[in-house]
Design brief:
240 residues, alpha/beta, Rossmann fold, four-stranded antiparallel sheet, 38% helix, 27% strand
């Protein structure tokens, strides 16, 4: 039996006439953290959104646990067990922390709500302290915790994390990455992580891809990419 949970082959995505993904191949294996690094505008977020069906891949295939999902509507993809913490967090600002987490749990029809709430609060104690607070009044780091927590409430088999460290203070970045590592090691959660912070992402990742202008240019383990001189020069030196 294959341990590949998600596989893309020859995936092409367009915005109108502009091609954003140029025939890319990728694999996400069960129980692993896979990361995609690259500069701003490389196509990383487009990859995440294409997996979720918005925009749709114009060519190629995306297979999740044996099911072709590239032509499926987004809500059906979500029900298969893929949850996303999107770039820019996109929490519901007027709702409380608790209500945001309830929204995440609707995919699971609230069946395991209390049990999952305990898990999220254990992972991010700050959210428990703020449970009655409006989400829009949280700090950036707390909003990121909430976005991840909301995705976890859907009980995903695959968690997509799009730029979770963006705009956060270094101490909060460490906390977020420690939480991702814990979810993977203790819960066996499979994670696809898109990140500009290449150092943190590659240290965490079992498998890694470098994306440049909509193409995957380098592939290997996280450790291998950390030690590749061209990766170091492009993404790890000069403050990244």
């Amino acid at each position: 039996m294959s341990d590949i949970l998600l596989q893309g082959a020859g995936v092409e995505t367009f915005y109108g006439k502009i091609q954003a993904l140029r025939g890319i191949d990728f694999e996400v294996h069960k129980g692993e953290i896979t990361t995609v690094i690259g500069a701003n505008g490389a196509g990383k977020s487009t990859l995440m959104m294409t997996i979720c069906g918005t925009p749709r891949a114009r060519a190629g295939s995306i297979v999740f646990d044996g099911v072709e999902i590239s032509k499926m509507p987004t809500h059906e993809i979500v029900h298969l067990g893929i949850a996303q913490s999107p770039e820019g967090r996109r929490i519901f600002p007027r709702m409380t922390v608790f209500e945001n987490l309830q929204m995440g749990a609707t995919v699971d029809k609230l069946q395991h709500f209390d049990e999952d709430l305990v898990k999220v609060f254990k992972l991010f104690p700050r959210l428990e302290e703020r449970r009655a607070q409006r989400a829009g009044t949280l700090s950036g780091g707390e909003q990121q915790m909430l976005a991840i927590g909301r995705a976890l409430m859907a009980r995903p088999r695959l968690l997509l994390l799009d730029e979770p460290s963006l705009g956060l203070a270094p101490i909060i970045v460490k906390l977020i990455f420690a939480a991702i590592k814990k979810l993977n090691e203790e819960e066996g959660l499979t994670v696809l992580l898109v990140e500009q912070n290449a150092f943190h992402a590659l240290r965490l990742a079992h498998r890694a891809y470098v994306m440049v202008n909509g193409k995957i240019t380098i592939t290997g383990t996280g450790a291998e990419l950390l030690n590749r001189p061209e990766v170091r020069a492009a993404y790890l030196e000069g403050g990244h």
